[in-house]
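Subject: for your reference before the review

Hello V.,

The reviewers asked for a structural picture of the protein, and I figured it would be easier to keep everything in one thread rather than splitting it across files. Below is the amino acid sequence we used in the manuscript, unchanged from the supplementary table.
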Amino acid sequence: MSEGISGRWGAAMLSVLRIVSSLIFLLHGAQKLFGFPPTEQRPPLFSLMGLGGVLELFGGLLLLVGLYTRPVAFVLSGMMAVAYWMFHAPQNLFPTVNGGDAAILYCFLFLYFAVVGGGTWSLDAARKS
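And here is what came back from the structure prediction:
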């Protein structure tokens, strides 16, 4: 029998998930640091939100290309956990009410990347070849 769709396409789809999620994530950093895409949220660089923007932009870029995927994803996962408990949870415990659903999703998505790596389409995989 064939190895199935997960065996044949699983590693490729892991890379697609990493690429798409990191691209969306780094846009949050670009908004905070450069106001692009246009937003009214421009925190000072030397603030927690500014530091978050730096991590989102540069961590997102590293994840996008799949370089140092595991340690970067681990740091970003922790950052998103802190963001949820510091900024969202005090407003309301429910993520759909406090706006923290994306923070929780990124936290666990990045934790997954920290465990499994960046997939076959990553600079990490190319460096091992």
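For the response letter, the relevant points are probably these. Residues 9-128 form one domain. The helical segments are 4-34, 48-65, 69-88, 95-98, 101-116, 123-128.

Happy to draft the paragraph if you're swamped.

O.
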